[in-house]
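Render this sequence as a predicted structure.
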Amino acid sequence: MLCDDRIIRNGCFSAEGATFTHSGIQRAMGAEDAILEDAFVINEDRLKASRVLVVDDEEANVRLMGRILERAGFVNHRGLSDARDVVGVFLEFQPDLVVLDLRMPHMDGFMVMEALAPLMTEDSFLPVLVLTAELSPEAKRRALNAGANDFLSKPFDTVEVILRIRNLLEI
């Protein structure tokens, strides 16, 4: 199943165990445009300049997050479906925020956070939003303890994800 406008407009996307609801995009295309537009605007220049890196082993999920980010005004984003590439992409792209899945082959989200930690200076701050189908309280605590700044479970509300991204970028 490909991630296209039809799937997003219909309100739900499912890919091999991960389901996303898109009530936010549905609302954004309806009567609440002005309200949601205000919620998505940080500072137009800063929003366009923010770099968001999405790391998820499911290519469909990476594409979906890219479309969600674009609809919210985030034009500088990259997606990875192989977490083993994260260090090289991080150094080249220098993201302002990472959206990270936990359950991935080869290198899980915990290993990604561990690999990124030495690349951070004392003065730098890299917010990490974990977005995962892992629902256990232990995984949530472990992710937050490993350096994640926020944690959301799939399926997720699109508006909430964008608002949390905005909030993390404002810190």
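Summary. The first strand starts at residue 12 and ends at 15. DSSP finds nine helices and seven strands in the chain.
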